[in-house]
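> forwarded from #structure-qc
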């Protein structure tokens, strides 16, 4: 219900903005200047857009108060989503070499086989 009222409130706000922007400017922004026969005259009060603005503004204020009351009286308990806490992070595995490497063996007669590839980081290998 709260979501429905929130959507209705957004539609009223959009309609209110539209009606306000459709009105003809009378040159007296924020009530300064303009002719004295503006909003208080019979023609100004009977204007459809003026009445629509008043009605929509009333609905907007009413819905704002209603939504504030509903939001403050909802006693929903705050719950923490623990669905991700059950799953541990996957273990980091060593990358698999693209080519199979023959085992390296060090015998008394000399080294045989192929040594695994090493990164060239400028380090000097230690002799056994």
């Amino acid at each position: 219900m709260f979501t429905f009222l929130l959507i209705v409130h957004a539609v009223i706000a959009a309609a209110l903005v539209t009606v306000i922007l459709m009105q003809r400017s009378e040159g007296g922004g924020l009530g300064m200047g303009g002719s004295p026969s503006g909003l208080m005259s019979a023609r100004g009060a009977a204007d459809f857009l003026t009445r629509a603005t008043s009605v929509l503004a009333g609905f907007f204020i009413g819905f704002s108060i209603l939504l504030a009351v509903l939001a403050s009286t909802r006693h929903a308990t705050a719950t923490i989503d623990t669905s991700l806490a059950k799953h541990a992070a996957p273990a980091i595995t060593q990358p698999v070499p693209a080519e199979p490497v023959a085992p390296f063996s060090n015998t008394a007669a000399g080294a045989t086989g192929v040594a695994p590839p090493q990164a060239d980081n400028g380090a000097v290998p230690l002799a056994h």
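QC bot note: Residues 102 and 120 are 20 Å apart (CA to CA). The beta strands are 104-107, 110-113.
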